Fold these 4 entries.
Entry 1:
Amino acid sequence: MRIYTHPACLWHDTGPEHAERPERLRSVIDALIAAFPELDWREAPRASRGQLLRAHAPDLLQAVLETNPRERMLLDPDTVLSPASAEAALRAAGAGVAAVDAVLGDTTTRAFCAVRPPGHHATHDVAMGFCLFNSIAVAALHALDAHGLERVAVVDFDVHHGNGTQAIFERDPRVLYASSHQWPLYPDSGARSETGVGNIFNAPLPPETDGARFRAAWSGSLLPAIDAFRPQLLLVSAGFDAHRRDPLAELRLEAGDFGWIARELVQLANRHCRGRIVSMLEGGYDLEALAESSVAHVRELLA
Ligand SMILES: [Zn+2]
């Protein structure tokens, strides 16, 4: 089990009032170090231009990498570009690529990328919703195009729908995208009727949904769909903002529910892909809930 991170992910400076702040990642890293002294920590490399261009338009690369702002500026009302953001975004995407290389190269079976900014709202050509590059999409396309895999599943239990990931893959039958998310909530996509080319599976959950109903949604529809797809690699958009303490949403999950879904995903990966899972941090905005939930997540990946 490897953990990929980079100090630059702490330098992405969203400003004093922003929910997606460096302290989030600091709390995840501190909690993982305290809970699991034996983890194998690796410095994330930068994603290359070619790796990013598999998922993104040249204009988006230019906006993120070549604006070189001297102070914070907004790419959209929620999405900040600071002087260090380009480096953070390159390292976050590069973490996923390196983790895919390690897992598919049989160097390790599972990897968790403790990175920010998050990625799943970024589309082919738009940075939005705190996300600059769609790191999980870059990782999936690396597994397909560089390693020659034919079927990759992207599992997303962040409380927000991963509109960017869905948009990038909704016409690509090599990728299955399965998401549970609060609805209605930002970004207002993720209806059950959005099915792509039969490769998109959405489970919108009403506000106040608790762990039991969350587990039922995964057991009833999403996990069986992934099982039937027989993925060769499982990628996880691990957002912990469906926790009951999270300030940005109204679901009522506990850390144990994040442990449960991780356990289910490990069993699924053991059935289909020799246990291979790459998980990447997405959202989670209550520091205590985020720390507890990421520990519960990594504990199951270690099993
Ligand atoms: Zn989220």
Entry 2:
Amino acid sequence: MPGSCALCGGDGPAPLCAVCSETLFGQKARAPRCQRCGIRLIPESGLSDCSCASCTRELPAFDRTLALADYAAPLDRLVLALKFRAQLPLATVFGQLLAREVQSQGLLCTKDIGHLRVMAVPLARERLAERGFNQAHEIARSLARVLKLPLSAGSCVRVRHTEAQAMLPPQARRVNMRGAFAVLKPQAIAGREWLVVDDVMTTGHTLAELAACLKRHGATRITNLVIARTPAR
Ligand SMILES: [Zn+2]
Ligand SMILES: [Zn+2]
């Protein structure tokens, strides 16, 4: 039903009504998260207040992750609607919500704001051809517009058609991502701080591999911005 909420079908500004937006992303839905990888922290785990066990053991190549919510029902329905039913207005809303989070976390209060750039996790060419769009890029475009930051497209690409990560067991995912990205315009990457946008962060191996690739080419700092983070099992 056009003009109604994609989640509850109720009236209100499409594609997400204020009530559903508040339920999914409002103050009450917030949780303490690992500063580095964005995973929800269990308060009683006795770990330091900003790092999860995994990041304490081995630091990923990215520096920080902002996640709006856990990847769980009913948010998964919206993420899948964007990805597989091309509900592109959702990308605009997701980008606006991420922009708000970036602002409230003070990420723009950096003296190097002139070096701040936005990119989406690149999609393999085959996947792009079959889907027709990169949902992460659509979110990144909306975010960059709100924050008035330059959006980079094509400076880094996915070079190998890696099997869909979701089909693989967790231990195979990291191996699967090795060498998955290539920088085509090194001068566009070096000396820049990057906001890297994706829809869902599952194990974090894809984002870690991308961050490692960007840092090998001189990127100074990487912050991941994701809509949903898969919670620890
Ligand atoms: Zn609603
Ligand atoms: Zn972590």
Entry 3:
Amino acid sequence: MKPAPFMYLAPTTRQEAIDALRQYGPEAKVLAGGQSLVPLLAMRLARPSVIIDLNRAPDLAFIRSTQTGLTIGAMTRQRVAETDPIIAARAPLLAESLRWVGHPQIRTRGTIGGSLAHADPSAELPAVAELLGARFVLASARGERVLDAKRFFLGYLTTALAPDELLTQVRLLAQPPDAGWAFYEVARRHGDFALVGVAALVRMDGDGRCVAVRLAFTGVGGGPVRVSEAEAAVTGKRVTDMTAAEAARIVEGALDPDSDIHASAAYRRHVAGVLAARALMQAARRAGSVT
Ligand SMILES: Cc1cc2nc3c(=O)[nH]c(=O)nc-3n(C[C@H](O)[C@H](O)[C@H](O)COP(=O)(O)OP(=O)(O)OC[C@H]3O[C@@H](n4cnc5c(N)ncnc54)[C@H](O)[C@@H]3O)c2cc1C
């Protein structure tokens, strides 16, 4: 199939894009990398009458180091972020997770903002954004607002973005230099969306005990899912095979994923537990301590 007819606008600045959204918001869709939107248009699952192409607005693509972390422009290509030295130094969890997103060809076009705005529950970036304390900057002709992940991700393919709003940038906290991290997922074929994925961040004290543990899962709910009971079970302890197995058991019991044609809920729960244990061990190793 081919897309239904639409009017095509190509703003050359962030402000022009916001002006176009003010004029056409409810009937328009912004086009970022097109890796999710173009198939939807081609199948006529989305039929906007206006396309606002962001690809000619260079002021939406940047990576900046800040005092507390980094700021990434929405139109930054996933592949650029994956190989960026600032991200490698300050948020290696993000760089690692990006390697799991589709294939290099997709990441070369796909953008950080497009993935976050699309909010696929199996996508890697929402879980990483949740762990790195993301702040989403939403701009419109009415002004700007800044939301955290809990207020930005509202459920399956749904965010707080209003029809006239543009996601312009995401602000992330830098990982503490002594934090260990890991990202694992299971997909049916390399490059497919994950059946289940997990992002982990761990900090240890000088004695090898966890002082902070964060786990965020993809593919097991409408958006990124934290399991605070599993995080609490590891906090204050050394990461051993036994503590990792205990965390896995809690994760399996706490998650409530759906079954679909790709995997049953029971399989997803089991995989989430296995991946949680693996991610905890790897993160603790990188933080310099596994007993
Ligand atoms: C074969 C294949 C495999 C893939 N595998 C994975 C995978 O494993 N993991 C994964 O996470 N993704 C995967 N993707 C999707 C890919 O990551 C996309 O790049 C991403 O979902 C959308 O980013 P985009 O820049 O292409 O956005 P687009 O497709 O251009 O846009 C997606 C949606 O977001 C909206 N949007 C985009 N930017 C903004 C903005 N700045 N403000 C407001 N709204 C905006 C658009 O209007 C549209 O509704 C895959 C895609 C393909 C084709």
Entry 4:
Amino acid sequence: MSGRSTCPRCGSPISWIEKLRRGDRVYYVAVHYLGYTKSGGKVRKRVRRCYLGPEEYEYVTRLHRDLGIVLKGAIEERRVVHYLDAFLEALPRANVDRPTLVEILNKLRYLATRLEEYVRKLEELEKEEATRGG
Ligand SMILES: [Zn+2]
């Protein structure tokens, strides 16, 4: 993993990730590079480390959770509806080639399928709650 991602502990950019092995467990540490110092003719790297957790999946899950929150916010604040409206409005004037339009079309079809599934699940949940008298 390299540079661009943000540290879930301190919010600073991660310079690199270190994998530490302790017995049979693997831990991940975010390293923040702070430059270097020279003393006694030796060059020493200055770094700050943030503990990310055991096993890579926890780190990945945390990143996904952050993404999930962003997307959830976009949906709950009705931003998605505004984006779609803006997209529809801009489409006739947009100078987009046919392959890109086909790609967008396929993504929208996929999105429509997922939305239908999701709406159906919500309807089932609402029915369940209604019969439970909640
Ligand atoms: Zn950090």
